[in-house]
Amino acid sequence: MQDQNIYGGYNNVPYNTTTTYTVTTVHGATSYYWTLSNLSTNCGCTTNSLGLTTCPNGVVLPKFAPNNTLTITTTSPTATVNWGNCIGTYSVDCVAVNSCGTDGIYYKNVNVYNPNGGGPDPCEGSLLVFPNPVNANSGEPGNISIEVIYPPIDPCDDNPLGRVTNNNDVKIYDFYGNIVFSKRFDSDKIEISNVTLKKGHYILNVFTSKGFYKKEIIVVR
């Protein structure tokens, strides 16, 4: 068996998000068996001798979608994780299954963090937003120009050998956690236009092939 990193998804993810992970297709594999493991003690959860984990009210541990389980078998080399709201370090593991047994164990350690405080943000990086503050006239859309700049050493680098894509998923949240804008761009210089934002503070999130970045946007009139 040969170890190989999972190449899809991010090494650092904010909580309450969903990530799809991918492994290289293994010749002859009939299915892929995925598991999630908790590598750190956190959120007050305990596991008894029978392997049953219990958590305080309101704590949601990561689970595979759509079955909401810690293990899942897929016919394609991809799996999606709902990361819940419990910060910490987790391991995503995958085994390719064929008629002879298993082959090709894949793994990725993932750090789940709180992007709104309560701990260090491992993906805080150089994200430039122009203009900021944004002047939005009453009843008219505010135009925002965004440019993503990558630091030389990126703690959220998911592909140290270089970028495989420059797809950028951009989401803007208000301070109540509501998404007010969401779109995918294929360029590092992103032009957002015709978006109506009321006066206030917003959080801009950019998910790239290099990781996750965030920036506060101030809208004035």
Notable features of this structure?
221 residues, mainly beta, 6-stranded mixed beta sheet, 5-stranded mixed beta sheet, 0% helix, 50% strand, globular
Structural overview:
This protein has strands at 4-5, 12-14, 18-22, 31-38, 46-47, 53-54, 63-65, 71-74, 78-82, 88-98, 101-113, 127-130, 134-135, 142-148, 168-174, 179-185, 189-195, 200-208, 211-220. It is mainly β and 221 residues long. Strand 10 (88-98) and strand 11 (101-113) form a beta hairpin. The termini are far apart.
Give the mean pLDDT.
77
**Could you tell me the number of beta strands?**
19
Q: Write the H/E string, N to C.
A: EEEEEEEEEEEEEEEEEEE
- N→C terminal distance: 61 Å
Instruction: Please count the helical segments.
Output: 0
| Helix content class | under 10%
User: Taking Cα atoms only, what radius of gyration do you get, to the nearest Å?
Assistant: 20 Å
Overall spatial form: globular
The main sheet comes to: 6 strands, mixed
Structure class: mainly beta
- Uncertain regions spanning at least 5 consecutive residues: 159-164
The amount of beta strand, in percent, is over 45%
